[in-house]
Amino acid sequence: MTSILAYNWNAEVFMNGDSMSYNYNMFERLGGSIQKKKLEKALEMFHNESPQELRRRIGNIDTREILEKLEEYNPQKLRQMGINIEELRGKITERDFEKLMQVLGRDGALVVQKLKSLLN
Questions:
Q1: Which residue of 23, 50, 64, 81 is 20 to 30 Å from 8, comparing CA positions?
Q2: Whole-angstrom distance, CA of residue 11 vs CA of residue 46
Q3: 101 lies in which domain range?
Q4: pLDDT given at position 4
Q5: DSSP class of residue 60?
């Protein structure tokens, strides 16, 4: 940061208070970009690999952890992160949900139900 830019930024913080909401929004957006890439990679794996291969790659998954993580998200938060729910709806098929239930086992239906409610 050049000294003029640093001076202007410091002056703005001094005059207007900390611009934390702007910084927080920026970091939330960055986190959203990372999550979006992870989500795209997961969808690609789901579309291209068999349930057996997915089980092998993922290993033993604790569905409680998945459900807890899903509780952190809601449509508004996903939008703030730059994740387009409409786009996701178009990419995820019933076949994907069925495969997810196969991979996760008996608790897979709970995860699928939560994902469907998040997407609606």
A1: 81
A2: 50
A3: 3-119
A4: 56
A5: S
